[in-house]
TrEMBL record:
<dbReference type="Pfam" id="PF00153">
    <property type="entry name" value="Mito_carr"/>
</dbReference>
<keyword id="KW-0999">Mitochondrion inner membrane</keyword>
<keyword id="KW-0813">Transport</keyword>
<comment type="function">
    <text>Mitochondrial electroneutral antiporter that exports citrate from the mitochondria into the cytosol in exchange for malate. Also able to mediate the exchange of citrate for isocitrate, phosphoenolpyruvate, cis-aconitate and to a lesser extent trans-aconitate, maleate and succinate. In the cytoplasm, citrate plays important roles in fatty acid and sterol synthesis, regulation of glycolysis, protein acetylation, and other physiopathological processes.</text>
</comment>
<keyword id="KW-0050">Antiport</keyword>
<feature type="repeat" description="Solcar">
    <location>
        <begin position="1"/>
        <end position="79"/>
    </location>
</feature>
<keyword id="KW-0472">Membrane</keyword>
<keyword id="KW-1133">Transmembrane helix</keyword>
<dbReference type="InterPro" id="IPR018108">
    <property type="entry name" value="MCP_transmembrane"/>
</dbReference>
<dbReference type="GO" id="GO:0007528">
    <property type="term" value="P:neuromuscular junction development"/>
</dbReference>
<keyword id="KW-0812">Transmembrane</keyword>
<feature type="repeat" description="Solcar">
    <location>
        <begin position="186"/>
        <end position="271"/>
    </location>
</feature>
<dbReference type="GO" id="GO:0005743">
    <property type="term" value="C:mitochondrial inner membrane"/>
</dbReference>
<dbReference type="InterPro" id="IPR049563">
    <property type="entry name" value="TXTP-like"/>
</dbReference>
<dbReference type="InterPro" id="IPR023395">
    <property type="entry name" value="MCP_dom_sf"/>
</dbReference>
<keyword id="KW-0496">Mitochondrion</keyword>
<comment type="similarity">
    <text>Belongs to the mitochondrial carrier (TC 2.A.29) family.</text>
</comment>
Length: 279
């Protein structure tokens, strides 16, 4: 099994809680008092399984997403390396930006829209999606294909900035660690630590975009005319703190996710370099 999928299965409840907290508008009183309350209400109402609502969407999307992200990053970075084959951090940032935007358009937008709608549906008065395929069929039946592609601008901005920040931090740390020796081997644990740090930086850097994306993909998305309109309304009605909803649960998951993904990526590249000399 793909290690990334195992990670998703372990950490998905944090993703669920993050999404619920981000969807929870400042209604009086708000549905959830915080992380613990959200977990408690979900388990009381739907059992532990309720915390895994929307999981299948991420599982189906995890492999294509990683393939598009790293494929695009390799493609771009091979064009941008200097004559010694080194990629500086600024170029790493642009390659990451391209990789994030590509994965957003091809995989992440529909995958996230379905995830958010499923999670939102579970907390609505009468949930209507029975399972993954039934839910997707319902979304397409009632809203057309556009219903699975909501919040595209916000998703492109979020994924683009996500990967730009992560690859920038990752490239900087890697270059710093290797110093003058481009062939210095990095221990997977060090790669993991660098990845977790890169993940944390991206969470603090772009959670506001994540909140906007979640709102644009929820069942109440029709309230917002555009990405900008959504940002303005959140600011006006809920204040600046609302842009950091779900930061804590997101932090845990993202750090683990990015660490694991970068370790796998580095190991795969090592193996491929042995099989095909890419120099």
């Amino acid at each position: 099994p793909n290690p990334n999928r195992i990670e998703i299965c372990i950490t998905f409840p944090t993703e669920y809680v993050k999404t619920q907290l981000q969807l929870d508008e400042k209604a009086n009183p708000p549905r959830y008092k915080g992380i613990v309350d959200c977990v408690k209400q979900t388990v009381d109402g739907h059992g532990v399984r309720g915390l895994y609502r929307g999981l299948s969407s991420l599982l189906y999307g995890s492999i294509p997403k990683a393939a598009v992200r790293f494929g695009m990053f390799e493609f771009l970075s091979n064009k941008m390396r200097d004559e010694n084959g080194k990629l500086d951090s600024t170029r790493g940032l642009f390659c990451g930006l391209g990789a994030g935007m590509a994965e957003a358009v091809v995989v992440v937008c529909p995958m996230e829209t379905v995830k958010v709608k499923f999670i939102h549906d579970q907390s609505s008065a009468n949930p209507k999606y029975r399972g993954f395929f039934h839910g997707v069929r319902e979304i397409i039946r009632t809203e057309g294909l556009r219903g699975t592609y909501q919040g595209l601008t916000a998703t492109v901005l979020k994924q683009g900035s996500n990967q730009a920040i992560r690859f920038y931090v990752m490239t900087s740390l890697r270059n710093w660690y290797k110093g003058d020796d481009p062939n210095k081997v990095i221990n997977p644990l060090v790669t993991g630590a660098f990845g977790a740090f890169a993940g944390a930086v991206s969470v603090f850097g772009n959670t506001p975009l994540d909140v906007i994306k979640t709102r644009m993909q929820g069942l109440e998305a029709h309230k917002y005319k555009s990405t900008l309109d959504c940002a303005v309304k959140i600011m006006k009605h809920e204040g600046p703190k609302a842009f950091y909803k779900g930061t804590v649960p997101r932090l845990g998951r993202v750090c683990m996710d990015v660490a694991i993904v970068f370790i796998i990526y580095e190991e795969v590249v090592k193996v491929l370099n042995k099989v095909w000399k890419t120099d």
